[in-house]
Amino acid sequence: EPFVADEYIERLAWRTPGGGSRGGEAFDPKRLLEEFVNHIQELQVMDERIQRKVEKLEQQCQKEAKEFAKKVQELQKSNQVAFQHFQELDEHISYVATKVCHLGDQLEGVNTPRQRAVEAQKLMKYFNEFLDGELKSDVFTNSEKIKEAADIIQKLHLIAQELPFDSLMDFCCYPLSSPGKYHDLECQLIQEFTSAQRRGEISRMREVAAVLLHFKGYSHCVDVYIKQCQEGAFLRNDVFEDAAILCQRVNKQVGEVFSNPETVLAKLIQNIFEVKLQSYVKDQLEEHRKSDAEQYLKNLYDLYTRTTNLSSKLMEFNLGTDKQTFLSKLIKSIFISYLENYIEVEIGYLKSRSAMILQRYYDSKNHQKRSIGTGGIQDLKERIRQRTNLPLGPSIDTHGETFLSQEVVVNLLQETKQAFERCHRLSDPSDLPKNAFRIFSMLVEFLCTEHIDYALETGLAGIPSSDSKNANLYFLDVVHQANTIFHLFDKQFNDHLMPLISSSPKLSECLQKKKDIIEQMEVKLDMGIDTLNCMIGQMKHILAAEQKKTDFKPEDENNVLIQYTNACVKVCGYVRKQVEKIRKSMDGKNVDTVLMELGVRFHRLIYEHLQQYSYSCMGGMLAICDVAEYRKCAKDFKIALVLQLFDTLHALCNLLVVAPDNLKQVCSGEQLANLDKNILHSFVQLRVDYRSARLARHFS
């Protein structure tokens, strides 16, 4: 523990008798002082003793340090001597190694020609056996030494090829025996390789393949290997899956057998594509090529997709430097005859299929499609009839049918979607935008022109004249369905067409075509504004049938129990239904535009209707109640202008009941101050008491 002087003194005082209050003893400072003095002396003696011991140890340490330094110097000298000896030894070893290498080179220079001479002697011996016509050497008679025999035959064959033809003729037996033996041995090696492959002996296959590598028949060995690999590999219905499994299995094995595995595997894949897959594709497509375009296109898309998927799996293997180009050429070789005229088949099928879908729908409605709105006399008569109410013949009765079908639209869009998918997969990248535009044109022709546009034209032709009673306004239903359908069309345009043409000049062409379609439909929808005339006509019929002159000039002024007239109730009910129908049928700014037009016409109708009657005081109050109800109805339009018009009309109706003395004050009010005085006068004239001198005087 660390030494603390205060604690040490405390413990010393505590142990000294009389040094503290322990046991009730009295404190004795003399004894404590004496004890301290004695203890100090003891500590001084101890300090001197320890100091002497320290000095002795320091002297001993200095002595040992000198001895150690002397020993280190001696070791350094010994190390320098050893290092010099090592350098001398290293130089001597280098000298000896140089001599040994030189001697080795001399020995190799002598031994190499000797080995060549020995090899040449052996070849001459074997050559001599071929000349004699008897092969006596063990290497030719022992079937287990076929590898050595093959090496000899290969060398003799190369020598024979280097000799001139005249020299070969001198050895009449050689041309008969050596080529024959070469061929026989080659066949024997291939047979041995085949047997080893059937037995699954990879090591033996590798040995034989290494021997055959220098023979002309090496390629035949590879062909035999490829042929045997495919035996029993294509037993299921899915040839593509079988091919992938086969290549996966061979890829693991081919590296253990051949020295050039990537070449062998590439040759196997080429054989699979050019034989198995090409035959399978031809069988699947030729069956439907002329008889069933739909099935032909489905099969072509499916087969091409599965082939490209197989190609993607094969990209994992080592097939050489440019495997992407290699596989692409194989796919092209299979499908080129089908892809050249693909788009013509696609357009032809899409055209016939779309026409059939439309015709089947019209047949289900017992409807004979007619030519409407072509700009001829019939079209001119129809437009004049709608705008002038002249009796130029009845409008076309559609019996409430819109001639728009969600099912037809879904079928057309589904067919086009599949066509876009096939186009994306089967078209050459350079032809893709052009082909996609042709498919889009088919969709425009049959969906937009033949179906939507025809329904709009039919709906326009079916709009009744404004003086028709109980007319059914089906055109708004046509607008509603056409709007929904066009949203689906626009979604397919963005989802399926745009990705195919987004980076090509065809993009602007497609956008312009789409814009033209929208503008053409908007023109027809604008022409359908004549529907508002029919609505106003229906309101006129209701007012004419339900409004009575006695409503605003009752016989008993004190016994009026109704809050507003029956005509007002029915008109407001009819208007609310039409407003709701317009909101459902249209969207965006079109809703506000149509409702504003309807609201303005509705206000004009009520304004002119009110001017047809004379009003007593109680009748004027009832007219104000009617206009208040019309104003509530106008709030449903949510158009500020319409609400302002009815607010002003409500203020005008106050002129029917206000006291004569207050007429000028009311006319100068905020809502009426800016109106023409003739308008104000026309309303005041409707009062029953207008001709009284007092009223005329006050108003003038």
Automatic annotation (TrEMBL):
Task: Tell me where in this chain the Exocyst complex component Sec10 N-terminal domain is found.
Answer: 29-137
Coiled-coil region list: 40-78
Q: Which InterPro entries match?
A: Sec10-like, Sec10_HB, Sec10_N
GO-annotated biological processes? exocytosis; Golgi to plasma membrane transport
Q: Where is the Exocyst complex component Sec10-like alpha-helical bundle domain?
A: 148-699
- Any idea which UniProt keywords this protein has? Coiled coil, Exocytosis, Transport
What's a single GO CC term here? exocyst
Its domain of life reads: Eukaryota
Pfam families listed in its UniProt record:
Sec10_HB, Sec10_N
Q: Which family does it belong to?
A: Belongs to the SEC10 family.
Its protein name is Exocyst complex component 5
Q: Which organism is it from?
A: Baryphthengus martii (Rufous motmot)
Q: What is the lineage of its organism?
A: Eukaryota, Metazoa, Chordata, Craniata, Vertebrata
